[in-house]
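Hey L., structure's done. Input below.
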Amino acid sequence: QVQLVESGGGLVQAGGSLRLSCAASGRSFNRYAMGWFRQAPGKEREFVAAISWSGGSTPYADSGKGRFTISRDYAKNTMSLQMSSLEPEYTAVYYCAARSRIYTGNYDVPGSYDYWGQGTQVTVSS
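Output:
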């Protein structure tokens, strides 16, 4: 069992930056690949970025390439998402997720993740 808690959301102007964090507790952090997803009102949950259990693979959604950087700290059991050049359409609740390293399928499938945080709101004003 893994518990995930997101933090770092807030209100930011377009073009600004935010850093989201996800704190993990429970079973060994390095057993899990981690991901960020977001969900805007009336829309489906969509993939943002992920990082493999080893940290060696970091896929991004097209919207985040060149803007977002995902990382993880094994000593602190945390994962972060540094977001820059934010746009109003990025406004959403951002969720942290974890899945077993045994699973080797695509990272962008929400159903492949076993554990989810409660989400943190990101609002980008124009």
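The chain has a mean pLDDT of 95. The chain is about 0% helix and 50% strand.

-- N.
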